[in-house]
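Much of the work behind modern protein science is quiet bookkeeping, done one molecule at a time. Below is the pair of lines this work produces for a single protein:

***
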Amino acid sequence: MKVGTVGTHLHVVRAKVQIGKKGAEERPITIEEGAMIRAEKQALIRQGMRAAQRWPQERNVRVEALRSLVQSGHYRIDSQAIAECLLNNETHFV
C-alpha cells in the first residue's frame, strides 16, 4: 500500500449465537447474519419513529377529552380499577 492512500480494514465480529437448546456459542457471525441483524434493528427503529410521530397527536386528543370531562363534571374515577392496580403493584415483587 502506498503512503497516503486509504486502506480497507475488515474486522471479525464475535457474537454469541444461539445453537439449539445447548446455549450460546461464540463464533464469528456471517455476512448474512450481520445483514439480518441490521435489517431487524432498522425495522425496530422505523417502528419506534412511527410510534413517536403518532404519540403527540393521540395524547393531545386524549388530554382534551379528559379536560372536557373534568370541566363538565362528568369525569368519574373508577375506584375498583385503581384498587386493582395498587394491589397488582404491591404484590408484583412478592
Q: What stands out?
A: The radius of gyration is 26 Å.
